[in-house]
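queue> holo job accepted (BGN)
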Amino acid sequence: VNMDKLLYKKIAILENCSDVIYGLARRRMINLIPPTWAELEANFSKTGIQLGGRWKPKNCTSRIHVAIIIPFRDRDSHLRVFLNNMHPFFQKQELDYRIYIVEQKAGTIFNRGLLLNIGFVESAKIDGDAYDCFALHDVDLIAENEWNIYNCSEKVKHMAANISKFKSGLAYEKYSGGVAMFTKWQYTSVNGYPNTYFGWGGEDDDLYERITNNNNAGFSRVPLDIGRYTMIKHERDSGNPVNPGRVRQLQSSYKRRKVDGLSGLNGTYTVLKIDEFLLYTRIYVDVDPIA
Ligand code: BGN
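queue> job finished
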């Protein structure tokens, strides 16, 4: 045995990564052509990625430990574009991260808020306390500016300030959807997303009300030139019709806030399967249609 090597291994504690990262680009090249799964896996196996879509810098200890949580169903080509662009993005920011795809089984109306709550709770069962910061992320949003750092801050941090689909950038003043960063504590203190918005729309506005009516959490948003995202173009998903009850639900949001969220999550879903693929971890769930 080489004693020198052994000894070196034992005492090699990695220092924190530098708080300055060189070479971040303000306009990143985005590739919207979906690679095949084989191409993806071949390209990324060289980057030191670990099973489950985990990665961390090799030579230093990252200052940022973040779980990326993505609600998902039936958007395979978006997922391939997302992974192809965003793995390198996260790695450039020297994050210690893992990508979770929370996939809703066919047969029930899509429920984005519920899936994000499930991802928050179930990823912690898998990782323990490995990640203290959560990026709640849509699969069709690709970040353009590498200065949009995926860390958590004192207040909830809204990242998707400037999405290509919206002419003026910001959808509207109270918009909180797309991509947002929460510490574990921030997300718990607002009781997470509501579980009861089946179909498109309103769940993010409900979350905004929860955040801004809660003295503890607080809401912040990155500047427009930082929070730039390209949205992958798509048609309306068949399993995700506009929720006709969303306006009414939003009006009574303050009454349900305490029970409709993380606190009421038990019994609303079943985890069918957890897969650790090379580029992501899949949490496959069936949800109760009357959650
Ligand atoms: C809003 C939706 C959001 C959606 C944004 C951006 C509603 C509630 C109506 C009272 N809100 O209109 O959920 O993220 O558009 O597309 O539908």
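queue> The pocket of BGN is lined by residues 171, 177, 201-202, 204-205, 246-247, 250 (CB under 6 Å).
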